Fold this protein.
Amino acid sequence: MLTFDHHTLGQRVLFGVGAAAENVAAAVRELGAERLLLIAENSITALPDEIAEHLPVVAWISEIAQHVPADNARAAIALAQTEAADAVVSVGGGSATGLAKIVARDLGLPIVAVPTTFAGSEATDVWGLTEDNRKVTGIDARVLPKVIVYDASLTASLPVQLAMASGLNALAHAVDGFWAPRADPINTALGTEALSALHGGLTALDRNPEDLEARERALYGAYLAATAFASAGSGMHHKICHVLGGTFGLSHAEMHAVVLPYVTAFNTPYAPDAAARVAKSVEGRDGASAATRLFDFRTALGVVGSLKDLGLEESDIPLAAQLSLKAIPTSNPRNVTITDVEALIRAAWAGEPPDS
Ligand code: NAD
């Protein structure tokens, strides 16, 4: 019997290669916005210039850092207030979207988000903020962008390694969603479709970085995965990664790529349906487990392979484990002890095969 309570978040989602400027203009018109705060990465050039030239931009922030440092957030809010901004347009990865979200949370401004990575923040109502080395996250309907403008050509300038890591971050949204606190048949279906789009898109992109269709397929998968994650909530994987990112400053996408196989190996005996979905979508040797397939896929894509290589000190592992344990949902399919989580982080730190 089906018994669940599923929330679908309301957003307009536009896809179109080469159509970002036109679609942003249409979205801004629809919102009736007349004073835009533009939050745009320096690494993306043409689109922000075009937006600033043709739309009513009153302020432009290009200083963007990962995990939304509180000082940057305060400065962005103050600028939006001084310039009486009535909407935010963000162009960039999860960090640019994340900064826009804090402005939206505190000032109630609508966001038009133009993602340039596969992070997926644009499809969630989750905000994050980091102060005094602690990352806090929360859910707030005001931070969900009103409109998402996807244009796969904007991801073309992403360095290949970063694109692959970002795609694996998206994959983690789908997989972690399978055992997250509000997992249900609808977000599981979205996550399953996301896995196949992401696996197919990233595999094709690895063969040919110029393949725009592959980028678009990965972007579509990233959107589906983030939608599934927004609905299902943060599972064990995301809680560990929030600690590793917020307290130890590890690079977001790569860290997700590294940790996912270990959480999957840990949960697999207690989440056989989730493991079967991963094993079906992610190619691998006959009989290889879901965790090994994820590990081998990450290796094949050339993404960094250990938390040690991302800069985590071995001496930080006990604190990372303690902080993670406090955050891991009690609904995780497998009970987690401090010994478990420390062993998991240690294996990810060393980059050992996950089933060993
Ligand atoms: P990012 O936004 O920090 O970008 C990584 C790097 O890539 C930056 O140097 C950026 O300038 C550069 N870059 C981005 N797009 C580019 C492009 N098209 N071409 C060239 N360079 C480009 O990284 P990310 O992984 O996209 O986002 C990570 C952040 O997003 C973290 O803070 C994370 O917590 C947050 N996040 C939040 C959610 C959510 O639901 N709230 C979901 C996913 C990620």
Summary: The first strand starts at residue 12 and ends at 15. The pocket of nicotinamide-adenine-dinucleotide is lined by residues 41, 43-44, 66-67, 92-96, 98, 116-117, 119-121, 124, 126, 128, 154-155, 157-158, 162, 166, 169, 252-253 (CB under 6 Å). Strands lie at 12-15, 36-40, 57-61, 87-92, 111-115, 126-131, 134-139, 147-150. The CA atoms of residues 76 and 103 lie 7 Å apart.
